[in-house]
Each structure stands twice: as C-alpha cells, then as structure tokens.
Amino acid sequence: MHTITTDIAVIGAGTAGLAAYRAAKAAGKRTVIIEGGPYGTTCARVGCMPSKLLIAAAEAAHEARHTAPFGIHVDGSVRVDGRAVMDRVKRERDRFVGFVVRGVEDIPVEDRIVGYTKFIDNTTLQVGGDLCVKASRIVIATGSSANVPPPFRELGERVVINDDIFDWDTLPASVAVFGPGVIGLELSQALARLGVRVKVFGKGRRIGSLADPVISAYAKKVFQDEFDLDTDADVQAMTREGNQVTISYTLRDGSTATEHFEYVLATTGRTPNLRNLGLENTDLALDARGVPFFDEQTLQCGDSSIFIAGDVNNILTLLHEAADEGKTAGENAARYPDIAHGHRRAPIAVVFTDPQIAMVGKRFSSLAPDSFVTGEVSFEDQGRSRVMLKNRGLMHIYAERGSGKFLGAEWLGPRAENIAHLLAWACQQNMTIAQMLAMPFYHPVVEEGLRTALRDAAAKLDG
Fold first, then answer.
1. Can you give 270-299 as a three-state secondary structure string?
2. N or C: which end of the chain has fewer CB within 10 A?
3. Under DSSP, is residue 259 helix (H, G, I), strand (E, B) or coil?
C-alpha cells in the first residue's frame, strides 16, 4: 500500500470541504482534499440551483394563468411542455455544476485524491484499497444524504428523493409528497403549478420549518388553498402496484380514502454521510446518529485534531453556513492546538415558495415567554403588495422587553428573501427596534410592511 504524509487531510469536496482546503492552504499547510463521489456541491447538483430552476418554470406558468385580474387576457390555455421544462432544468443545472467542477480541477493535481475514505485511527486514513494518508489533522466535510425510511424502500423506483427529480426527462402525472418541510413545500408547489397532481402528507402539523404557531397556521391555509396538503396525515397503507403506488389514508370524518400516484417523493429529512467512514476506529465519542461530539464554535471533535464542518454536522444545513464552517475548520486545523471560535453570522433562512417563507435571528420556540413582544403586519392590505396582487402574507417581529433589541422574525410574504437580508443585517448589528425605525423606508415598497410590524412592536414595548 502506497503512503503519503500531509499536514491536513480534508474528506469531501463539497462547499465545506473546499472552504476548509482553501483556508488550510492559505495558512501555509500541506493539504490534500479527498473525494470518492462526483465533483459538484449539493447546492449545484441536487439542491439550491436545480430546485430554483424548477420553481422559475412553475412561476412562469402560474403568472401566465393569472393575468386576468390586471385586465390582461391570454387567449387559450397555458400549455406546460414537461420535456422542455426538464431539459432546461438539467442543462442549466449542469452548467452550474460545471463551474464547481472547474473550480475543483484548478486545485493542484497533487492535492486531489480520488477515492472513498476510511479512518484507520485518529490520524491515518485509507483511501480505496491501495493508499494510506497520514495526516496530523483531519477535517470531515462529507455532507448529508436524503433519508428514505424503510417502509418507503419497498416501493422500489417508485419512491424518489429530490436528487432524482432533477434527472427526470419529463413531468409525471401525479406525485405524493411525504414531508412538508422546506424541500417538500418548494417542490410540491412547483410541481402543482406545472400541472402535476400533488398530495402532501405531513406529521405533527409542522410546515416549512416555521416555529411560530400563528405564522404556521396562516401558511398552512395559504398552501392548502393551492394544493392538497395534510399536515397531520394518518396513512394506513402504502403499496406498489405495477408502475403506481396506492396510498390509503384516514379522512377527518373517520372514513378511508385511496389514491394512486406515479411517484412518492420522500422529503423526510437528511442523514449525515458517515457510514463506512470508520469512525469506530478512532477514539472519538459519537452520538446516537454516529456523529462525533464537537464544539459548535470551533468545530473540534472532542479534544482531538479532527474537525467536522458543513451539512454532516447538521447545525444549519445551508450553503453559506457550510462555507463559513469549512473556513473555520480549515483555519483551526491549520493552527491546532491553538484553536479559536469561528465567525457565526446572524441566522437567516428562506423557503422559495410563493409567498416566500423566511426566518431570521432567534426562532419563536427559543424565546422565553413574557421576555419579548411581537410586532405584526398582514400583507393582505399592504400597499405595494396589493398593487402587484402579491398580497398574501403575515409577519411577526420579536423584540426584547426592556432593551427593545430586535431578536428575530418569522413570516411569509412577498419578497421575503430581500427583507430577510435587511433583518439579518439588523440582527447581526444588535440593533433595537427604535434604531431600525430610524432607517429610511421608500414609498411605495413592500418594505413598508416591515415598518408597520416594527411600529407595532415599538408600541407594545412602550405600552
């Protein structure tokens, strides 16, 4: 077996792994990056970008069908060409992946190792069957994969995950979606707007990662008005019959309904990619999922020279968080044992539905009762939103009693992705509600709705 020695080995060439490699190299350390699968990040290949391509097509179809309220009449019906839709999704997806692949290929060939990796001990890796890598520090950045629970696996190729959707040649006639989380909501609405019959099955009445019960209830009604959504479904049976899946479930009146679908889309969470990594050969303590215990600020596993970054650690499975964590892990691996806290930005998350959902700062569920006030605004009568006929939405702003500090927000509404950035910047600057209201607001813009919520919070702080 051939052996190489290096200062740092990074396992995984996704967003976190690439950031870790670059940070370690910038610190002057000998570093290799090891990848067993195809190059290309989760975001580019099966996540952010292809899903937004599908959503963009769905939005085009939806807008074309809803011009009449403006006095604009489109003759004839809107025809969705499923093959053309998926052709563009795949072509543009491959273009984004190509950018990432070229970035990886710019890494010196001597720093790139291809093969699946297994720990032999804390500082020794076996890559494939004939290479041993001895590294004094190691960064685990192996990402995560869609979780398919055992009952779904019996459906064979009739069960799909979001990765599979973006390789379809055309759109199916029907899809049953399990899990109305971020991915499930985005894809369900997009497929429904593209003419696919969609039914969404959920559990626990949760929707789109929202924690605020009032916002969650509003969101549920908005999406139920557009497609079939049950956030607390009681599924009795799910069986494959030829090229279809038959699902029986209990209705609210106690009776049973049965429907047939071409596919079942499982959006039921993700699992860290740690299987077969040989962590049992290290002296790391592992949690119930097999993930090493680690410090969320330094990303160090125990007191070892092993660090863990990106989706694999399941702190915040977002691209910008993975990039930040990769940089922290790479820098700390380079400076070990003199490690430091990495930079953590204000939490921000967006769900690209229509209306969009956004969450900034502290979540409602993490706030102590009576420690905060809630500023509210409905976008149903908000001026610019109504002008555009995008007037569906409800926002809650949370402010700390006494100090007036802005704590966080949860909402759905028009242009939430843009407003979310304003609020994330305010959160990171530790601004108060009064300071935020002192900032300029143009007229007429959707952001005036944000000002209304801030004014409501200010009034309650003064009350």
1. EEECCCCCCHHHCCCCECCCCCECECCCCC
2. C
3. strand
Please name which of 280, 25, 4 lies closest in space to residue 127, comparing C-alpha atoms.
4
Do 141 and 326 touch, CB atoms closer than 8 A? yes
Phi/psi for 196 (5° steps) reads -85, 135
| pLDDT at residue 204 in the model | 87
Q: Are strands 306-308 and 348-351 parallel, antiparallel or unpaired?
A: unpaired
Q: What is the rounded CA–CA span in Å between residue 326 and residue 299?
A: 9
Please say whether the beta carbons of 422 and 430 come within 8 A: no
Residues 6+ apart with CB under 8 A from 12: 33, 34, 35, 140, 141, 142, 143, 273, 310, 312
Per-residue pLDDT of 399-422, as tens digits, reads: 999 999 999 999 999 999 999 999
Digit-coded pLDDT (tens) for 241-275: 999 999 999 998 899 999 999 999 999 989 999 99
φ and ψ at residue 410, rounded to 5 degrees: -135, 135
DSSP SS3 for 149: coil
Residue the block writes with tokens 């950018």: 99
Residue 198 contacts residue 228 (beta carbons within 8 Å)? yes
Query: Which string of DSSP letters, residue by residue, matches 20-61?
Result: HHHHHHHTT--EEEEESS-SS-HHHHHSHHHHHHHHHHHHHH
**Could you read off the pLDDT of 424-440 as tens digits, one per residue?**
999 999 999 999 999 99
Name the CA dihedral angle for 227, 231, 235, 239, rounded to a multiple of 10 degrees: 50
- 330's tokens: 């790479």
Inter-residue contact 134 to 5 (CB < 8 Å): yes
Do residues 299 and 194 touch, judged by C-beta distance below 8 A? no
